[in-house]
Amino acid sequence: MKTAFITGASSGIGWAAAVALGRAGFRLVLAGRRRERLEELARELGAEVPTHLLTFDVRDRAAVEAAVASLPAEFADVDVLINNAGNAHGLAPIQQGDPADWDAMLDGNVKGLLYVSRAVLPAMTRRNSGHIINIGSIAGHETYANGNVYCASKAAVAALTKGMRLDLLPHHIRVAEVNPGAVETEFSEVRFKGDTQRAASVYQGYEALRAEDVADLLAFMVTRPPHVNIAEVLILPAAQGAATVIRKE
Description:
Layout: E1 3-6, H1 12-23, E2 27-32, H2 35-45, E3 51-55, H3 61-69, H4 73-76, E4 80-83, H5 99-127, E5 130-135, H6 148-168, E6 173-180, H7 187-191, H8 196-201, H9 211-222, E7 232-235, E8 240-242, E9 245-246
Parallel strand pairs: 1-2, 1-4, 2-3, 4-5, 5-6, 6-7
Antiparallel strand pairs: 8-9
Helix pairs in contact: 1-9, 3-5, 5-6
């Protein structure tokens, strides 16, 4: 049985990915900041899916390293890493941006991805085997007004994914990126700092992607034969033509 390590597993795409990969026969390391949510997910998965829970913030390098080092032997050799944890904070022009929001996005979306990858990679490089999927965004490929730092953080994910793929090629480690468009999760609620009405308005008038749609794609990618790497995917709802172009009924 292969082991998949999923960050940001306590909600949204991470939660759905855990369900999809559990069904696909993976043993799961579920990482997130909300222990009670991870425990709820483990209960939903059931006893037939072996799980190990890790509670940490990807922005805390020491906590990441300690958590990965604590993995029991049966979970320590990670076959698949899904770097899903990330965030968007605020939607303001650059001159009005909150530096605390900038730190949260750059530390979570970029440095957090690096910290987790760096902690997991020694086992992969030792075995010359592994698969890493970074969750990017259409925002990393199309900068939009007021998206400045969030778009920059996801553009960094795109560049890092390509750099990782080159550096890890000699170790037979596949590296890929999935770039979702509009997905109805807690994403907008976090971006708008708990303003649920404003967050809900983002998804009104059309059918957005569901977390399960992205999870289905992830499950397909990680179950391809070893000689196949689906290296980069843009996944959009049918109503979306570009980052800020959405057909509403």
